[in-house]
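[audit] Reproducing an earlier prediction to check determinism. Same input, same settings, fresh worker. If the tokens differ from the archived copy the diff job will pick it up downstream; this log only records the rerun itself.
[audit] input (175 residues):
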Amino acid sequence: MTNPADVSILIFSTNVGVARTLRMALRGMGARSIQLAADEAQLFEGFAAADTNAVLVYVDAPENDAGVDMIRFLRTSPRSPNIRMPIVAASPRRDLATVNAVINAGGSEYVLFPASGDALLKKITAARFSTRPFIEHSSYVGPCRRRREDKSYTGPERRTGAAAAETKTDSEPAA
């Protein structure tokens, strides 16, 4: 892991108490450059104040949630400072609907809240140094959602390449 003091983080949460808790956990691990934002204006102030390496977004619920909306904004808006910025979502919810909402909005990593500073920094580091390709498509903008790297998997959802997945069926011989 990189030196936590070198990481600049912007925390977005409409709940000030949660934002301060996240900041305390990260400061406990040695992170020093941490900006807080509760709305879009403060988010832009945070980007202007520091060279942000990652954004930590608190997500409370998948439906009508400011956190998921902010992830979508950061990924798709022409006003976004950097659509490729690593975004880590912190949420107390572990249900599939919440996790899928974050992933489909373009979140890079997901961590259950409350989390230790160590867990948060590990997720931020994983998001910053991810080798997953970045996808920019009309229906999705964010890191590639495919996580399976196991080449021994032979099931029906195996992908051998983007072109092969679209043009070849299981009954056709491989070219």
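[audit] rerun output stored. Observation attached for the diff report: Confidence is low (pLDDT under 50) at residues 162-175.
[audit] end
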